[in-house]
Design a protein that fits this description.
This protein is an alpha+beta fold. The protein has a single domain, classed as Aminopeptidase, CATH 3.40.630.30. 28% of the residues lie in helices and 36% in strands. The protein has four helices and seven strands. It has a seven-stranded mixed beta sheet with strand order 1-2-3-4-5-7-6, with helices on both faces. Helix 1 packs antiparallel against helix 2. The radius of gyration is 14 Å and the shape is globular. InterPro entries: Acyl_CoA_acyltransferase (IPR016181), GNAT_dom (IPR000182).
């Protein structure tokens, strides 16, 4: 699997990955925000390719709280194969280089909370139905990552 910076030619593949993760991991209404974010990227965003196919995407941004992981996702049919773990580890390594003293945050759902706990994150708050009915918003934090 190879990671590289997102390019505009990756737009359709990324939207396809997003749609494949609706409704369990994303609300359909979030697609417009994701689409707009892809069209106006200012922050680092990456895709993972395997055998010529984009299998995952995700990025990060600096914000008032620290560094936030953004829009991380894996093709639904490839969940459970270590791609998500590799994507998070790749982004954490970039963050350690760019922002070594910053905590890392993620807003995620109850469905991926255990995954991020295994990656060293701890839940700080839970907002029931924070993304929509049945999809709770979980704010998680990981201490600064050393390079």
């Amino acid at each position: 699997m190879d990671f590289r910076r997102y390019q505009t030619a990756d737009y359709d593949a990324c939207l396809e990955i997003f749609k494949g993760n609706v409704p369990k991991f994303f609300m359909e209404a979030e697609q417009a925000e994701y689409s707009l974010d892809l069209k106006n990227l200012d922050d680092p965003y990456y895709v993972a390719e395997q055998d010529g196919l984009i299998v995952a995407a995700g990025g990060y941004c600096l914000n008032a709280k620290g560094v936030g992981l953004t829009w991380g996702m894996v093709r639904r049919e490839l969940h459970g194969q270590g791609i998500g773990r590799a994507l998070v580890q790749f982004r954490l390594a970039r963050i350690a280089e760019d922002y070594p003293d910053q905590a890392v945050y993620i807003d995620t759902s109850q469905h991926t909370r255990p995954f991020y706990e295994r990656m060293g994150f701890t839940a700080e708050s839970v907002e029931t139905d924070g993304y929509g009915p049945g999809l709770h918003k979980v704010l998680m934090k990981r201490p600064p990552v050393s390079p």
